[in-house]
Amino acid sequence: MAAADSHAQSALSSDAKLAISINDVEKEIRKEPKDEFDYSQRSQWLRAAVLGANDGLVSTASLMMGVGAVRQDSKAMIISGFAGLVAGACSMAIGEFVSVYSQLDVEMAQMKRENQRESINEESKKENLPNPIQAAAASSLSFSIGAMMPLLGASFIKEYKVRMGVVAVISSFALLVFGMVGAVLGKGPVVRSCVRVLFGGWLAMAITFGLTKLIGGIGL
After folding, report:
1. pLDDT tens string 72-100
2. 69 and 212 in contact (C-beta within 8 Å)?
3. Per-domain residue ranges for the chain?
4. Where are the transmembrane segments (predicted)?
5. Does residue 44 surpass a pLDDT of 60?
6. Which of 219, 18, 42 is nearest to 131 (CA)?
7. What is the DSSP string of 122-182?
């Protein structure tokens, strides 16, 4: 009799353990999946930073190549490059601030038009709104960083042909780096991004150099 009771208690214990195990499995299944990082949240500052860096690099390098097409002294190239850096950084900051602020006004107006039942999500929606100051600072800083690449490359080289070659090489390398960084942070195709940025920069520098050389050659 005692053996039967012991067997029954053992069976009940096994059933209880099995039930607990099944419950644990069900809880794991019912668990919500972990939130994955939303790469779209990076789009606000990433777009401004990558755009600013590329603009700073391409515009300053193109400006310096254009000046170098008609003037061989390093002083003219450096001064024009520095002026392009300051003017471009200010322009990028102001333009990005105005643009993003306009976008913010539109999105705030849209939030006010939403019906009352969605008001519980208002705080989370506000967190995802564009930040004009952040975008302006990112654009200005990244533009300056991009512009400093060719400017520093030309600052210590007196020989004209070597200086032009260094500006072109440094600019090309920096374009590849910026294209790669933008693709990695945004989880995009690295090779395609690098090629697109590189050829775009080359085209801008070639057009600026060629047209400036043409205008300088005919004396206008």
Report:
1. 888 889 999 999 999 999 988 898 888 88
2. yes
3. 42-217
4. 82-104, 133-152, 164-185, 197-216
5. no
6. 42
7. HHHHHHTS--HHHHHHHHHHHHHHHHHHHHHHHHT---HHHHHHHHHHHHHHHHHHHHHHH
